[in-house]
Amino acid sequence: MKIRQALISLSDKSGALEFARGLVANDVKLLSTGGTARLLRDAGLPVTEVGDYTGFPEMLDGRVKTLHPRVHAGILARRDLPEHMSTIEQHGIPTIDLVCVNLYPFRETVAQAGVTLADAVENIDIGGPAMVRSSAKNYAGVAVVTDPADYPAVLAEMTSNGGELSLNTRFALAKKAFVHTARYDATIANWLTSLDEANQPGLFPDRLQLAFDCVEALRYGENPHQQAAFYRDPIPLAGSIANYKQLQGKELSYNNIADADAAWECVKTFETPACVIIKHANPCGVAVDVSLLSAYEKAFQTDSTSAFGGIIAFNGTVGAEVVAAMNVRKHFVEVLLAPAFTDAAREMLATKQNLRVLELPLARVYHAFEMKRVGGGLLVQTPDHFNVKASDLRQVSKVAPTDAQIEDLLFAYRVAKFVKSNAIVFCGCGMTLGVGAGQMSRVDSTRIAASKAKSAGLDLAGSCVASDAFFPFRDGLDVVAAAGAKAVIQPGGSMRDEEVISAADEHGLAMVFTGARHFRH
After folding, report:
1. What is this structure's pTM?
2. Residue 280 catalytic?
């Protein structure tokens, strides 16, 4: 299909001049509207304004300009139906063979603080989506371009094929166009249905529309008999796992991505050099120290057995010394994540062909929502990005924690936030000593955490303990004290808080309440 006439009407005008020049070079006549027409004319390009083309000026402050039979008949007429072509010829309507449109910036408008309903409504595009959908529907005879990133490829194909675009290209552009309008309408629907009675936007729309792009089909899901794919946000949040760049190694699996996400979300909460080792969605070793090397050595020491085949994340540039330490320990790792790797580290890692090495930007930002699919529905919540500070702590025991203990308690509590409930974390000197995860009773998690430390040969004397939720009975405190711990951090809020506090005093434990629970299911 040879392109003879194109209509260009753009809100985002990036790359528009270069694209229009390329069309003119391919003997394409240009139609345009408003600001886009002025841009092309000022650049010396021959362009006809849509108002002159239709015989009707833009009206109603630009609300009506392309909604005209001379525009839409030229787009929608089927080139393979003689009666269609005869009709538009009878009315003197030439075909429009390419439509280049992007839409009013609704998303950007409603993202501004203090935006009003009136401002938002004025940025709901009408004519643009109509032209995009008309063009995409009639892709057999029309090319529709909605993304400036496609301009170079479209021009290259036209130039090399005598001004023509293949059916495959037009179909691909049409699919992209329908996604473009669907997501535009979804953004409008989400924002409007989130308004309260005073027309102020809230957190949760009444009708939630979701949009994700498929990155790749995965070999299988959690198990080989399950099929799976990885989707990401159209604009992935900075610092999220979806922004990874794989430097080497095998394809990522469903479980690799899930565990890598858990490791990354945990490690990026620490400001000092940190290492997080994840196994089956739970941290089995976490540490902070003056360097990534020492943080790794401490994290590995927590549970070297579980660390085998785990996922490791660092919050700084990984050097050769860290890789060398992993080699000395013959530490088999599935995935290694960091914001950057030195050239020397990359060279050493290259010898491990199956090791998946991911590089991604470190940014401590969070999605607006977390979502979990359930039967027939979707659970949606804001993310748990609250980190307890020393000023949030309330001493409830007779014994006060020391400054060093407070530092370890805050560290342990931050780790507990990423451990499956019921979560118990023993720590000391900026490293985990024992982790109890995912048990039905909190006392069992406490026993497991203490047992893990004992198996690793770690001394719990003087250690600090974090619990992600309150201790429902004193039995957990009894286990903590018997293991040698001296300080405890927990949210509080149990009916038996007084019983638990009495147990702490009986054992000479320092205990603080946070008032903030960190369940992770």
Report:
1. 0.86
2. yes
